[in-house]
Automatic annotation (TrEMBL):
One of its GO terms (molecular function) is serine-type carboxypeptidase activity. One of its GO terms (biological process) is proteolysis. The chain crosses the membrane at residues 178-199. It comes from Micromonospora kangleipakensis. Belongs to the peptidase S13 family. NCBIfam families: PBP4. Residues 105-119 have a biased composition (Pro residues). This is D-alanyl-D-alanine carboxypeptidase/D-alanyl-D-alanine-endopeptidase (Penicillin-binding protein 4). Residues 18-27 have a biased composition (Gly residues). Residues 1-173, 218-237 are annotated as: Disordered. It comes from the Bacteria. The lineage of its organism: Bacteria, Bacillati, Actinomycetota, Actinomycetes, Micromonosporales.
Length: 655
């Protein structure tokens, strides 16, 4: 049994009010093999076959090969998009617009030069083994299961020991590709491209640009400014030397609290030059750091402005309405939804009633067939559904499958983000929709089915398959922000399926993993250094190399793929937000407060951190530190050991 990192960690053995014992796992899918594909002579960062063949491991489950290097087919259109604070459901923090005011026909007034704000990151989870090569079972199979416990601030990890990891391969030198633009410019470019802007807090302005921006109107007193956050990286600042970084990090990497297997990659974000590596190409359990790969690939595959539709079409008989799930996990029932600014079923119902005219709705059919395979990853422990941090993954759901969205929002701090989830999210959403259409009693009961095919553009209104209404999710840039800020596992799994859909693969756990591999290869990165069972990091059989993580972060900031820069908006900030809010407090780590910005990952005996740091000279670096054999019962010490590594980068010129 494993747990993922959490923003709120109360005292206690496990730090959670929910949970139960873990259980044995199913056989895992084979992780990344020890041997990487050979590097071309004289070009240690690329494979000799790059550009001529698919990159990475074979596609599972007879998914055909995907071309490598094809241009990104997704483009984003002119529709203005916004950014919501992912988890302030009462008084909003300073610098965040209120996303709930963005109703249909009222897009926020966005313009270029208004980059994202930074918000906290509450919770995430991690789960055990994936399986390999099996046909995916049908959804809703199996018996009753229950969730495990999550991290606690005062307690150590709870759960099964990690399975033995593959022996570390010999380190291979890597060449970082493509010259890099200043990260601030990239952020402004991508936000302007999708028409997105959010007010920034004061100290952040130095990093993202100095234009004056009026604060969002609010009746609340302003929050105090946070510490300087990645303030003013200087592209002309001196580059740390490899020897200088090695001298600073080697003693820290050997800390006993990190265990026997610590894999590290550090690179310069402006030049892409590798500055430090220790087991940097070794496949390592990433835990919730997996969400960085999910974020990059869904932004590449769908684009930041893409919105997930939920549709209603006319059924086979008069008055029958089919609600068709498109995979939006944030869909709300009404204005009291969990995710601010989400699409709403009451809006969809109003469209349907208008489209039907004088025909009264008689019944609702639920079409959630877009997603296939099991609703839980087959290798996850049996106690997933009842712990409050995950849910069955279906193409139609409301509020991330929370049973009571309003209560979950109000009690977020008290429950640390945990909330009871429904066991059949698609049917629950269908019943909610039926009630909004005015159905009651037996008529409000729903069943699964398929939407009839539309008979053509000339079909009469109300003919089977005719679209009666459609609502759309928050734009992808905001879904990614919420996923990273909140470490939201349900959003992560649905976004992995969006990658699969964009690459014409089944929208399932296996299809999402295969599509993620394909997109990693398309981006020119070594897909043989990633092997995933899911998109959230809940599986202990996920494997990612530290150098691939720094490659992903570098690529998101180098200007060649400006749409990827959206991953930075949700990253927690050392000593201020998310899973890093109570870290970087000790004297030996305080150099990292306000200048380390990273995604964390935690399972029992697994600790990871990957992100960005500005050095004392103003140079922006990317790092990934992963350890998957940490000693039992040393969570706080292990985290401080990780923080000392990143703080050393923040506090030195390393020249």
């Amino acid at each position: 049994m494993g747990r993922e990192d959490s923003h709120y960690r109360p005292e206690g053995v496990d730090g959670r009010k929910f949970g139960g014992p873990g259980s044995g796992g199913a056989t895992g899918r084979v992780p990344v093999p020890d041997a990487q594909l050979p590097r071309a002579p004289g070009d240690p960062g690329r494979r000799p076959d790059a550009g001529s063949a698919p990159v990475g491991r074979a596609n599972p489950q007879q998914y055909g090969p995907d071309p490598v290097g094809r241009p990104n087919p997704q483009r984003y259109g002119p529709e203005p998009v916004g950014r919501a604070h992912p988890q302030s459901y009462g008084p909003e923090p300073v610098g965040r617009p209120n996303p709930q005011q963005y109703g249909p026909g009222h897009p926020p007034q966005y313009g270029p030069g208004h980059p994202p704000q930074f918000g906290p990151e509450p919770v995430g989870r991690a789960r055990p083994e994936q399986f390999a090569g099996r046909a995916e079972p049908q959804p809703y199979g199996g018996g009753q299961v229950s969730w495990p416990d999550q991290d606690g601030r005062g307690g150590g990890p709870v759960g099964r020991a990690a399975p033995p990891a593959a022996p570390e391969p010999p380190p291979a030198r890597r060449r970082r590709r493509l010259p890099l633009a200043v990260l601030a410019s990239v952020l402004i470019v991508v936000l302007a491209a999708v028409g997105l802007a959010v007010v920034r807090p004061g100290p952040v302005a130095g990093w993202l640009g100095s234009e004056a921006v009026a604060p969002a109107a609010s009746a609340q007193a302003p929050e105090p400014d946070p510490p300087a956050v990645l303030a003013g990286p200087d592209p002309n600042a001196p580059v740390p030397s490899a020897d200088g970084v090695r001298a600073a990090l080697d003693p820290l990497v050997r800390a006993a609290a990190l265990g026997d297997r610590v894999n590290v990659s550090v690179a310069d974000v402006t030049t892409g030059k590798a500055l430090y590596g220790s087991g940097q190409d070794a496949p390592t359990v990433p835990a919730s750091v997996t969400k960085l790969a999910t974020a990059v690939t869904v932004l590449a595959a769908r684009g930041p402005a893409y919105r997930i539709p939920t549709r209603a079409v006319a059924g086979a008989t008069p008055g029958e309405v089919v609600i068709v799930g498109g995979g939006d996990p944030t869909l709300a029932v009404d204005k009291n939804g969990f995710y601010p600014g989400a699409a709403r079923l009451d809006d969809l119902a109003a469209q349907v009633r208008k489209a039907l005219g004088g025909t009264a709705p008689t019944r609702v059919i639920v079409d959630s067939s877009l997603f296939s395979g099991p609703v839980y990853e087959p290798g996850w422990d049996d106690d997933i559904p009842t712990g409050g941090f995950g849910a069955p993954i279906t193409a139609l759901m409301t509020d991330g499958a929370r049973r009571d969205a309003e209560a979950a929002r109000k009690n977020f701090d008290d429950t640390h983000g945990a909330a009871e989830r429904v066991s059949q999210p698609d049917l629950t959403a269908g019943r909610q929709f039926a009630r909004l259409l005015g159905l009651s009693g037996d008529a409000a009961e729903v069943k699964r089915g398929s939407a009839p095919a539309a008979s053509g553009a000339s079909a009469a209104a109300g003919a089977p398959g005719t679209e009666l209404g459609k609502v759309q999710s928050l734009p992808m840039v905001r879904l990614v922000d919420i996923m990273i800020s909140d470490s939201d596992n349900v959003i992560a799994e649905t976004l992995a399926r969006q990658v699969a859909l964009a690459r014409n693969k089944p929208a399932s756990f296996v299809g999402g993993a295969a599509a993620t591999d394909a997109v990693i290869g398309e981006l020119g990165l070594p897909a043989d250094e990633i092997s995933l069972a899911d998109g959230s990091g809940l599986s202990r059989t996920n494997r990612i190399s530290p150098s691939l993580l720094t490659d992903l972060i570098t690529l998101a900031g180098n200007g060649s793929h400006p749409e990827l820069a959206a991953i930075f908006g949700g990253l927690p900030v050392g000593g201020w937000s998310g899973t890093l809010d109570d870290r970087y407090q000790a004297a030996v780590t305080k150099a990292g407060a306000g200048v380390v910005r990273a995604k964390t990952g935690t399972l029992s005996r697994v600790n990871a951190i990957a992100g960005l740091v500005t050095t004392a000279d103003g140079r922006l670096l990317t790092f990934a530190v992963l350890t998957d054999q940490a000693p039992e019962g040393t969570l706080d010490a292990t985290r401080q050991a990780l923080d000392r590594i990143t703080s050393a980068l923040a506090g030195c010129g390393c020249r």
